[in-house]
Specification:
Oligomer: single chain
Strand order of the largest sheet: 1-2-3-4-5-6-8-7
Number of domains: 1
Number of strands: 8
Structural class: alpha+beta
CATH architecture: 3-Layer(aba) Sandwich
Largest sheet: 8 strands, mixed
CATH topology: Aminopeptidase
CATH class: Alpha Beta
Number of helices: 5
Bound molecules: coenzyme A
Strand content: 25-35%
CATH superfamily: Gcn5-related N-acetyltransferase (GNAT)
Order of helices and strands: EEHHHEEEHEHEE
Helix content: 25-40%
């Protein structure tokens, strides 16, 4: 099924305006440019390895969204087609788990509430899609994601014991 057509405008605290919309097949090149433009550190924190490009299967999943199993939203600065942030959910890689959520923001746009904005839109969409919970796997060294998580009511799953990776979840009210 096609995803709901999202097209929302937000003004950040620094005065810049960003547009958040559902990802479309036409976003494929901009999405690869976004991934290729991430710093090594950001790429590692998002993908758990350094990625220059998304593999074709993942690019297809992110841009040819099979809603409600998958959802991807992108942020651009108003007047530009350059992607500055990306968030979405995919089915759990663990059988009977909840959908997995992930987010990444271009390095030069970090700390400006882009991830906060993207995740707010994603949670609204998850509610519309009747999701009850989104979960995510985050490297334990990813302190910025932990700080963001506590701002957004994302909970650390204390039963998940992995020395490198933490499991987090957020119930969709
Ligand atoms: C983790 C990550 C997604 C955070 O994105 P971000 O856009 O910088 O996050 P936000 O700006 O929304 O929120 C974080 C910061 O903004 C602040 N903030 C939140 N809302 C705000 C607002 N309305 N106005 C001003 N600042 C705000 C937060 O307090 C926090 O401050 P900090 O940067 O000093 O820690 C980003 O660093 C990233 O892409 N990292 C690499 C990939 C990754 O780690 N992904 C997560 C694993 S899936």
């Amino acid at each position: 099924m096609d995803p709901p057509s999202v097209n929302r405008q937000f003004e950040l605290a620094d005065g810049s305006t960003i547009l958040v919309s559902s990802a479309r097949p036409r976003d494929a090149d901009a999405m690869q440019a976004f991934v290729g433009g991430l710093s090594q550190r950001s790429s590692y924190l998002r993908f758990f390895s350094r990625l220059d490009q998304l593999p074709p299967s993942i690019l297809k999943r992110f841009t040819q969204v099979d809603y409600p199993s998958n959802m991807t939203i992108v942020a651009v600065q108003e007047g530009s087609s350059k992607i500055i942030g990306l968030a979405g959910w995919t089915p759990s890689h663990v059988q009977s788990g909840d959908d997995e959520c992930a987010v990444a923001v271009a390095d030069e746009w970090q700390s400006r509430a882009v991830a906060t904005t993207l995740l707010g839109v994603l949670y609204d969409l998850a509610k519309i899609a009747h999701k009850t919970r989104l979960e995510g796997f985050v490297l334990r060294e990813n302190h910025r994601m932990f700080a963001l998580a506590s701002n957004l009511g994302i909970v650390l799953d204390k039963d998940f014991r992995d020395p490198l990776v933490a499991k987090m979840y957020r119930d969709i009210a």
